[in-house]
């Protein structure tokens, strides 16, 4: 039951008045008192085989979200199989020792679920969401995927064909090209540069490769199992033990930890040629904090003020005031051994230079000026509120907990994030801005027509190169 | 076997006709609001295709009391987000935020139910935005939503059900500000609206607030019941199209469905999901896996614009099948027909039914878990039926559907004479070059 989104009026309305300039109607009621988000109570356990188990019991609503995260993702892919994590994720449910792909799909469907497997730089997260009345059936199929995936030859042949087609399709999309180029420019030869497979790695990948990598990464001592929803903790733990206790860790060493990177990249423009492009996709990227760094929340608030929200300075400037672009964004992406701050805007060719100019201006303005009390409050309310809305879903609670584990953080972090954000001061924002946001720290990616981009950047005196 | 679940939900009607529904959810200090108006694509005037959706955009352009920008500022400053959707039988406005933003957002919803900023400048501006949206989502996309726009256009015969709901540019261009005002006065009235609040609230508090903000809005005119019926389909309809952007051909297949409240409708919803829902579905297994004549299959009853339960007029069971360029459409249709025939002749097993009904229950509950989407589902039920009972009852009714009913449904409705097929193939290379040059 997937639906087509037909309208995004609020998100797409062009040329609306600057959000910050609008004065509020005199009769409009004020915001009511803030209600704090009650952090989910997480019961943590470790099984004898080393499997970390985090349980959140929320009886009532009749579903259970299950997630397993294992260490090792794109950054752990063999050098001659970059991106094989994606093929692994796409085929992990295509058969086990005792179930065919069809049986797995039917067993999960019968429990009310689907299987999702998402590769990240540091991890693979496998999840499902089932009716609590069918939990036993769902957990059995889910555990089978996590423990006994078999990567049957015929299924892998079909999946490789689809992966090759998908990659071709993706390579026509500027956002994909920009993201791939940015990772390469920021991370160089560090394995963190891998964001996707290549046609060569897809062709070269075999069922034996997949089985080997699966065996290396899916082991209880390098995994967390998160369950959130309609169950009692004791019963759930017993059920989990019955499905996972006999899972044994191999004696081989686990996937090595990623190597940290944070040296500022060369402040240069890297062009990705896209002949005939009517837009330039501009990305400015720099290193930021990791999730476990003390100034992570300060950098998040700084980013929200700079470009991370609809009312932010950058969006107000280049979208609302100047109309250069529909949907600029600025995000902080934390990985286990690096954090990346990326600003993105797709702009029509003729405003490539002025957009870059305004991005640089807003980055440096964040460094040199303090946020107003209103900006600070707006940004913090937005971040705290967004978290509360996100955690309405049990799936999201499970996935957020899995992501915390991947980033080396304890489950209690889910309850203190909002408090940390709300406590950030203007001084904290200034400090994070000075440390991370100077425009000179950025690498620049421009996807589009080479001639347009070269002409746009000529006046800035920044080195320009073309990526292969 | 089932696992019934209901959220505490109640309903009241204000003197001006506005229906208010409140459903409690104290799992997070947040809420979702949905205001659904009983106006959608079907009722937009002839010569004004796309107008219901264009109008939806204008609801975000401010009012004399709360100029453009206020709504965005209050929502984002309140830590929330908002959106609007137009469908065949409703237009809805949805917001979600931490509970502290409830009062100002209710006030703003009441404000735009009272009046709008009817400015030709806003109309021109949003006309451009909508035309840009159509370019992005239709004209510049491979397949151009042909399974959602062209297919009903061919499968139905009357204007309400067959016209292009995104809008012909000539019609969008022809819209005038007095059309906007007339449409607003006719359809955006309390009696044609359902307001639903779901979240960390006490119903009595909410009813008091709604009374305070909405009671003074005049009730407005009553509307005559619209004529949206279709003459019966007599024979299969087949069409072919070319596509300048798609690299791979695709089929759209649409069967006319029985009315939502008929005895066949539930079996139809089950059949639709049995055939289309996920990797366990019959079409996925038959076409993508076993015979490998398709790259992907999507679809269902009332797909892609809603669930099999959220429509209030003629609709289709649609399949969207992308197939390999080395095959002919007839080879794909033959495999498709074999899967349909299997269902119509042998019927599903009780196991098949149990599985898909569990999945449908889980999907429906998943939708009700989130306050903003629960508000949306409740509002549509009340708008169509005057009661929200079906939202919680449908999973129980589905559990009673039998294999024989699904078999009978397939034999009666999933027949060639009841369907329309569009085969959409990539345009030849020289046509593509011409297209690019234009």
Mind explaining what this structure looks like?
The complex is a heterodimer of chains A (468) and B (438). The relative contact order of chain A is 0.16. In chain A, 42% of the residues lie in helices and 17% in strands. Chain A contains 17 helices and twelve strands. Residues 1-20 of chain A have low confidence and may be disordered. In chain A, strands 1-2-6-3-5-4 form a six-stranded mixed beta sheet, with helices on both faces. Chain A is globular, with a radius of gyration of 24 Å. Chain B has helices spanning 51-58, 70-77, 102-114, 120-139, 150-155, 159-162, 169-174, 177-187, 203-214, 265-276, 282-290, 329-346, 350-369, 371-385, 389-399, 403-413, 429-437, and strands at residues 9-13, 19-24, 30-37, 81-86, 91-98, 193-199, 237-243, 250-256, 296-301, 316-322, 419-426. In chain B, a hairpin with a 5-residue loop joins strand 1 (9-13) and strand 2 (19-24). In chain B, helix 1 packs across helix 4 (120-139) and helix 3 runs parallel beside helix 9 (203-214). The longest helix of chain B has 20 residues, at 120-139. Chain B is globular and about 60 Å long. Chain B starts with 8 loop residues before the first strand and ends with a helix. The chains are: A alpha+beta (468), B alpha+beta (438). Chains A and B meet through helix 1, helix 3, strand 5, helix 5 and helix 13 of A and helix 1, helix 2, strand 4, strand 5 and helix 3 of B.
List keywords for this structure.
heterodimer; A: 468 residues; alpha+beta; six-stranded mixed beta sheet; 17 helices; 17% strand; globular; disordered N terminus; B: 438 residues; five-stranded mixed beta sheet; 44% helix
Q: Most extensive interface: pair and counts?
A: A-B, 81 and 91 residues
User: Which consecutive residue ranges of chain A, at least 5 long each, have pLDDT under 50?
Assistant: 1-20
- Biggest sheet strand line-up of chain B: 1-2-6-3-5-4
How large is the count of helical segments of chain B? 17
Strand order of the largest sheet of chain A: 1-2-6-3-5-4
Percent helix of chain A, as a range, is 40-55%
Distance between the termini of chain B: 60 Å
Shape of chain A: globular
Oligomer: heterodimer
Mean pLDDT of chain B: 94
Largest sheet of chain B: 6 strands, mixed
Radius of gyration of chain A: 24 Å
Please state the average pLDDT score of chain A. Answer: 92
What share of residues of chain B is helical?
40-55%
